[in-house]
Design a protein that fits this description.
By secondary structure, the chain is an alpha/beta fold. Helix content is 25%, strand content 25%.
Length: 357
Amino acid sequence: MDRRTLLAGGAACCTLSGIGGTTLAQAKAPLWVPPEESPHALTFMQWPTSRKVHPDPVFLDMLRGAIADIANAISAFEPVIMLAEGSTHRQAKKYLSSKVKLWDIPTEDLWCRDSGPLFAQKSDGTLAVSHIQFNGWGQKQVHTHDGQVAAAVADRLGLDLISSGLHGEAGAVEHDGHGLLMAHESSWVNPNRNRGLSRDQIEQKLLQAYGADRMIWSAGVWGEDITDYHIDSLARFTGPGRVLINLPEEPDMRDPFHIAALETHAQLQAEDLEVTVIPEPVTPRINSIDFVASYANYYACNGAIIASKFGDQETDSLAEDTLRKHYPNREIVSLNVDALGEVGGGIHCATQQLPAL
C-alpha cells in the first residue's frame, strides 16, 4: 500500500485529554516555531511496525532499512531518538547505529513529521509542543498509537501540550520561521480534518500555532493521495523570502498533481518570493505513477542536508548543486530511500526536529 493510493486499514480515531502529567491546553501566550535550519538539540523519528499498514514483511524490512539509513546519517551530525514500542527495540538495534537512542513510545508508522510533536518556543523562552492533532490523514489509516505520539513525547520531556484546535499534519504546512506560512487548501480545508472550519479560521489557528503573521494558500489536490497533497513534497522555504520547488520538466496536464504544482509555483511567484526550481528526475530507479520522487523533501539538520537521490544522474547532481547553493555551509548527504517514495513520502516526512534554544 502507498500514500498516493487511499488506504483503508481500520482507521482509528484518537481524542486526547491528556497523557500522564501533560494536559492539553489552549495557547495563552505567543508561540514561535523556529526555522528548520536553525540549530537542533536532536531529531525525532518513528519506527514502522504495523502489519495493518505494511502487510508485506519483505517491504516492511526495506522500509526499516531506509529509516535506519536516514537516522544513521543524521546521527553523524546531531543526536537522534527513535520512537518505538519497547518490544521492538532489540530488532531495531540490528538496523540502527549505536548513536541512535530508542525511546519506548509505541508507533504504527514512520511519518514523524505528521504524527510527531511540533516544538515551539513560548514567550518566556521555554519550549512547548504546539499541538496539531494527527488523525490518520483524515481517518484514512490506523493511528491508535501514532495519534498519541506527540502527547507522549511532550509528557516524557515535561513540556506543555498546547492545542491548536486543528486536526492535520506538520508536513501539510511550510514555515520559514520569519512570519510566513504556505500550504495547500486540500490538506486543511477538508471535512476529513477540520469539518465546520472555514479557510480563514484554519489560517488564524495555523498562524497562532507557528507564531507567523502571513499565509500563502494554493488549492492542492483533494482525495488523490492519503495526504491530500502535502506541501512539503513540492515546495520548501530555504530562508526568509526563499523557496525551492520541485517541478516536472514536462508537465502532464492530465495529471492533477502536475496542474496543482504549476498553480502553486505561479502563486509563489506572484508573492514576490525568490523561487528556485529543481526538476523532478526523468529516469528514476522506480518507474511507477505512485512513486514520489521529491528532491524538495529533504531534512536540514546541524551541519548537513539529508536528501534523496533517485538514480537519474543529471537531476540528482543538479539537486545536490541547488541544495549546496541554498545551504552553503552544510554538507549534502544524498541517500537512496526509494522505499519511502514507494509509500508516498520522503526524508522530511520521516523526521521532526527539537530546536536548540
